[in-house]
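Quick one: examine this chain and its backbone structure tokens and tell me how the chain folds. Here goes:
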Amino acid sequence: MNRLLALVAALVISVNATASHADDTPVVVELFTSQGCSSCPPADEMLARLGERDNIIALALHVDYWDYIGWKDKFAHSAFTKRQKGYARSFGNRSIYTPQMVVNGAEDVVGNRPMDVSDMVQAHAKKGLPVALDLHRNGSTLLISAPAVNGMSAADVFVIRYSPSESVSIPRGENAGKKLNYTHIVTEWSDVGDWNGRSPLKASVPISGSAPIVVLVQQKGHGPIFAAARLR
């Protein structure tokens, strides 16, 4: 475990160093995970450390297909399993698994392999995202804007809310007897509209509560992410 923590620390430092030379756009890291998966805690810890960086938007999507083995994940949602299956089709993968990280909607990597994760995140940090996205909260309204972009494919605009951190004691299943810390736990995922880039994006979305907000603009069909921004 000490070796893993050292690797995670090195990953975070290297990603931060890369980001200082990249465009001012974030890297989106989605982790498909489960409380019923014994291989997932190292990936959950890695996502927590990545999410400490300002240039990384970390999102933990808990899937429900491990619930049958003795412990029901309290954060799991069938919609997240469906999203993971969509990525599998997009990437040409024959199956889904945990822990899986998807970076900028474009590539996937086994989520508990620090060096592989580091290499992929650094590569995307260097490339940046093609569209600058601006968010502003005005009371109970979220204002979303972006400039027009020539040649952009049709995209979905998603508004996401997440819980920064929670601890869970797990009495059954593969992680029985452990108390595990989870971070960046996605609690809401809403499709709020379409955008093709031909005119500027301007949208207003009703919101409530104090949970952090993430907006993604992603090519339809689980394609690459064109833009991302966060309000904590």
User: Anything to note?
Assistant: The CA atoms of residues 26 and 55 lie 5 Å apart. Residues 2-231 form a domain with the Glutaredoxin fold (CATH 3.40.30.10).
